[in-house]
TrEMBL record:
Record key words, sorted: Membrane, Transmembrane, Transmembrane helix
The keyword Transmembrane helix is assigned to this record: yes
Key word Transferase present: no
Origin: domain of life: Bacteria
Organism: Olivibacter ginsenosidimutans
Localization: Membrane
InterPro entries, sorted: AI-2E-like (IPR002549)
Entry protein name: AI-2E family transporter
Annotated transmembrane regions: 20-37, 43-64, 76-95, 148-171, 211-240, 252-280, 317-339
Membrane-related topology note: Multi-pass membrane protein
Amino acid sequence: MANQEPLPEKEDISLFTKKVWITVGVITLLVIIIFILKAAFNVLLMVFAGALLAVYFHGLANLLERKIKIGHRWCLLVGVILTLLLIGALFWFLGAKISLQVGELTQDMPKILASVENRLGRTDIGRKLLHYLTDGSGDKMMGSFQEIFRTSFGVVGDIYIVLFIGIFFTVNPGLYREGIIKLIPSKGKERARNVLRRLDFTLKGWLKGMLIAMFFIAALSFIGLTIIGVPMSLALAFLAGLLNFIPNFGPLIAMLPAVLIGFTESANTALLIALLYIAIQAIESNIVTPMIQNVMIKIPPALIIISQVLFGTLTGALGIILATPLLIVVIVIVDELYVKQQKYS
């Protein structure tokens, strides 16, 4: 009579197959979550932009509260009204002219690019530079600059969403702050409150510095371009101040159309405009920013570029715009939850 032996091979194969299917399921779930997060990241960035807007309004309210000695809610209302009146006055007095000049700049850009291409094509160095920038195609350079302007001014929908999110956050910030704290375990709630307080303080200091720096850049750019005699100087100065919100890449993007317009006059004019922008940025980076952002944490410049490339790759223009405040949030959280704990452990 033959002995019946167990079949461990079949059991092992069944167990292996089960593990394989579990692994495939987990990987599939992770891939789906990653795609969902990537698709939703733009929404999260708009929520963060709304939070920044609320931080600005409450920072302005705190400033007014120290000056006029009335309740915070009244100061908040006054701050919102003053901001809306300031923006309205800006567009009332300058909006039509800026809009007209921006329209002219966008319309004239193909002619300006053609003129620059013609001037560069007269020299060997210019032809090599032109071929390097366009890969032999002038249409590529023209399309690139049109895309820059489309990105800079085609964000009405995002602004609308951010504005309403910012208003809701401004009206009742405690509701959302406590909602976040409720998700934290009991022993970590006090630490979470400290982190949120430090984030609020740091972002207020950063926003204050950025707004002053943007105004400084716009004013100096307008004065310098007017002295040089560059057409559409108001639109170019407005663009320079606005794009200064984006470190590293913003000033470069703002300088390009001004230099191109200078090329239509002469190479010397273009060089003078480039030197003007470089000088203004040098003053802003080395003198103005350190003075007005003394409450902001120190951020290594390389980290700003890395964060801009990372968030820009994930979400495009909105990620590049918000890369610096997002980096500030990450640095504060890491410092509060890891670095300080290492000191006391």
